Amino acid sequence: MANSILQVKNITKIYRIYKSNYDRLKEIFFNKKYHKEFISNKNISFELLEGETLGIVGVNGAGKSTILKIIAGVINPTKGQIIRNGRVTALLELGTGFNDELTGYENIFLNGTLIGMTEEDCKNKKQQIIDFSELGDYIFEPIKTYSSGMRMRLAFSIAIFSEPQVLIVDEALSVGDAHFSAKCTKALKDRKKQNMSIIYVSHDLNSLKLLCDRVILLNHGEIVKEGEPEEVINSYNFLISKLNDDEEKIIINDNDSFGTFDVEIVKVTITGMNSKSNIISSGENAEIELEIKSRKNINNLNIGILIKDKFGQDIFGTSTKNEGFEYNLQENETYKIKFNLDLNIGIGKYSISAALVIGENHLDNCLHWLDFATDFEIAGIKGNIFTGMSKLYPKLSKMEKINDK
Ligand SMILES: Nc1ncnc2c1ncn2[C@@H]1O[C@H](COP(=O)(O)OP(=O)(O)OP(=O)(O)O)[C@@H](O)[C@H]1O
Question: What positions does the domain ABC transporter occupy (predicted)?
Answer without folding.
Answer: 23-245
